[in-house]
Amino acid sequence: MAIATAPGTRADFPLRSLFIAIVFVGSFLLFLIQPLFARLVLPVLGGSPSVWNTAMLFYQAVLLLGYAYAHALQRLPFKAQAAIHLALFAVAALWLPIGIRALGGADTGDAAALWLLQLLALSIGPLFLAVSAQAPLMQAWFARSPDPAAASPFFLYAASNAGSLLGLLAYPFLLEPFTALPFQQMFWTIGYLALMALVALGAFAILKSGVRPPATAADSATAEGRRPVTWKRRLHWVLLAAVPSGLMLSTTTHITTDIMAMPLLWVLPLAAYLISFILVFSSAGPLATRIAVWIAPIALLVFGGAGLLTVSQSASVYGLASILLLLVVAIALHGTLANDRPAADRLTEFYLWMSVGGVLGGLFPALIAPRIFDWVYEHPILLLAAALLVPAKPLTRRIGNLWRGNRLGRLLRILTPPLVLALGWWLGIAFMAVDTPPLQIAAIGLMGLLAAISIGRPLMFSWILLNLMLALGGWQQIDISTIDHARQRSFFGIYTVQNSQSTQTRRLLHGTTMHGAQSLEPAKSRMPLTYYAPTSGIGLAMQSAPLLYGEGARIGVVGLGSGSLACYAETGEDWTFFEIDPLMVELATDPRIFSYVSQCQPHARIVVGDARLKLAEEPAARFDLLAVDAFSSDAIPLHLLTREAFESYRHTLSPGGVLMVHVSNRFLDLEPVVAAIAKELGMAARVRLYMPSLQDRADYSYNPSIWIALTADEASMTRFTEATGHSEEWLPLRHDKAVPAWTDGFASVLPVLKPFWKDE
Fold it and tell me: Membrane-spanning regions, if any (predicted)?
């Protein structure tokens, strides 16, 4: 396509296409590095959702610095801008290829988030800063060109977000399943150098075609450009950007806590967030915004009304609904933001304030909320903030007129707030998520109806939505938060301690997944329950240890949990627990909460830190039996299921030692993964699927479980299975050619995902 040029010059480059390419490639690399580096850091801080949320906060903060840098450059002549920006690119290239820079041992305590922020800054900070400035700076440069489209270069923002989305999705769907980490790091390095060349070419093209003077507000003939940029307007930009940013992170916390911390699930909420930007800054933006603004209150009512409800069943469906809600709200708010954008002369300032909102929105769920809340209260708070900000109109004009100054309107305004408060309080006491009585359904329906007719009145709608949230589980959550030691939160998750009167047990939950239970009856308090029942795979293995290894058997356990396994200990045995979360150690060793450890192994050695790193410090042949039972909610952290991890496990096993791996999972079929690793390492492997009877489930709180045993050879496996007394129930592992062995450099969960409709 020919472009307009300055008098006396000739267009040697299709300028518009060139700048689309620069912005697209820059954004592609910017969002490709995010899941890539998070994958690199997994072995350092494990698979906590907070790892990703803290990383996202870092990305948003550096993005803000990049936007501020781009804004500041606009005060300089164009040649100076080009020279400084290319110099920044060259200096940042010293950090290639991307990798983890040494920062000493990982901090897994209260300062884990700050430690990770420092690691990110030292490892990729300069590179991320250089690339993050691309979108606003290249748009500002293009606005100085003679191209006819330069007067309104916002179309480049849509190209930027398209590149971002492609980079984000390319990782879990293309790079991670088919390439190893070294290739991914090299690929990003080549992309960075190519981007640097494109930026130099873009600067040369602008200089050759003729640099226009900076645009001013007087140059704009559009209505949006005539409106003054006041502090009130800037604050509105910040709020409209902050709420979707915070919602994106709080949604991520939910789905990665209950399923698995992995790039595939990390990127889904971020992808929805980016799609909203792509839509609203495209030609279809105004229409998409109008539709989203109309749908958003209904979506908030239907899906957000359950924002304080803990969902353990069908968590995948609930997670999908959360992502759809995020998408609708983000389109509505980002669309409102896009419709209020100023003229091109305030372009970099507009993006700067958007970025300020993104950082503030991310700061709340990533750093502030985990310190002040013991549950994910930040999520419903952000949903309420969205309800206040969405510029919704009444469903119909007649419904809107109901609230006006006539008698019915006065009655609605006066009676609705106390009525919904009373209904919410009553439901909060009586509500049952399963087999809800008809009277409660009617009360919920009335609250929903009042909320629907209040759409277009943000304060009233938000008040009803708040009380609906409190009714549907909110008061119960707050009640738990008022009980001492009932629920605590750390960088690695949310832990809830519940007493069940029906089974007379105390249960430990991480997210919505149970991680152990102990009988409240003194006579049964030493009996391991749930996945650790005496006839489960691990129960049989622990009971066979004295027969196989004598009175001085050396036992290692990765993942402390409630400490259930400690009560399989026999006199003279040497026990070591590895636990990444100091808070979990507090819960398991406090006899007022769980007394397994204090009763059965009060002097057990407990090593705090990531098991991969700590096991590497152990001497060879250190353990006769090593049990890997580390879970992040319902899944073993991915880096503990790689070939390199199993090599470190094998290194610590004595000759004839047994490695036990717990692979029970609602969402992933992990048996073929372990089978592939065992085959590559030449280890013998057997699996035991334990299905307790209904009577055992009711009387002893035994749970179904899948434990895999691995030994150095078949002879050791035969001795082990015979020692358990259930040799015929230890079965060969199921292999799947489509599932390769996971490694630190290559792992993909796509082949082992279970259908979400089978979620139990």
Answer: 18-38, 50-70, 82-100, 112-133, 154-174, 186-207, 235-255, 261-284, 291-311, 317-338, 350-369, 375-392, 412-434, 440-466
